[in-house]
Description:
single chain; about 130 residues; mainly alpha
Amino acid sequence: MSLGYAGLNGKTLDVLAKCLDEKDEDVVYFSMTAIGQIKVVESARILLDLIKRNVFSGYKIVSLLEDFPESIVPAIFDAMKSKDERVRFWSTKLLAKIKPVKYYPEVKTLTSDPSADVRGAACECLGKM
């Protein structure tokens, strides 16, 4: 946790990311939380990857990412390319928290997603924007 609060990236993120593969759930949880304290694009990518891996709930991961700067939006759209409906849903929920107005056209395209949940989250995001 101290590494996360120190806000160091680079090697620190590498060490914390490796801890996400541990068998001890507490180690994974606190590593994830520490990564959430380092508010850079690379840490956002690591946390978005956790949604894909289904390590922790999407809700928890979104709560860690919602205070990140808008500079992570391209990483969120990269995650949106996933075939996994759950990843697309939680990524869209995260967009609704960030409210990236300049990405309105991209968010609008999400209303055509095959998943009703993603389409609903996209409408929520557009409404908040």
